[in-house]
Amino acid sequence: MKRSLLIIVLVCVVPRANAQENADKFLVWLPLQLLPTLTLYNDARTSNFGFEWEVTPLLYSFGMNRYVSPWYSFIVEPTARFTGSVELSVAGQIYTSKLGSSYFGSYARIMGFIPLSERGEHLTLNLGVGAHRVAGTTRVFKIAGISTLFGMLHLNLKHADNPTAWIGSLEFRVF
């Protein structure tokens, strides 16, 4: 009788506690997604300041404890990112003046985070590749940067050839 009661409690209560924890994370995560990343786009024709909103639909962390799932979707704890990971992220952008015929841009990227100092808490190397679309044109960018402040502050530079273009971004990411 005691054993069956324990099983019923575990089946009914544990998932609810986990669901409540996920709901609490979501309530913190969602407002933080409204904070934009600062972006500077520069090519031969123009230089524009912009804002970017980014989400991570999928991340695989190879630096976490083996008892923690290495897979994350949307809500990514900074530790999973800075201890070593590969992520797929997408973003929407708004520029302060037109790039070609549009104020809007978007991109998708695959980025790797390699810890350099204190398992990534102090310094992480960011390397990746991404496709940036603005004003009906898609260009492939190489991405390099660093992360610090426990993986929450990122400085990334994106470069594309023919014609040469640079995008610099200063990102503050809590999740």
- Based on the coordinates given, report the CATH architecture of the largest domain: Beta Barrel
Total DSSP E strands: 9
> What structural class should be given to the helix and strand makeup?
alpha+beta
Count of spatially separate domains: 2
Q: Specify the biggest β-sheet.
A: 8 strands, antiparallel, barrel
Helix content: 10-25%
Overall radius of gyration: 20 Å
Strand content bin: over 45%
Stretches with pLDDT under 50, minimum 5 residues: 5-17
CATH topology of the largest domain: Porin
Could you report the average pLDDT, rounded to the nearest whole number?
A: 83
SSE pattern = HEEEHEEEEEE
Topology of helices and strands:
Blueprint: H1 2-32, E1 37-43, E2 47-61, E3 71-72, H2 78-82, E4 85-99, E5 102-117, E6 123-134, E7 137-148, E8 153-160, E9 165-172
Antiparallel strand pairs: 1-2, 1-9, 2-3, 2-4, 4-5, 5-6, 6-7, 7-8, 8-9
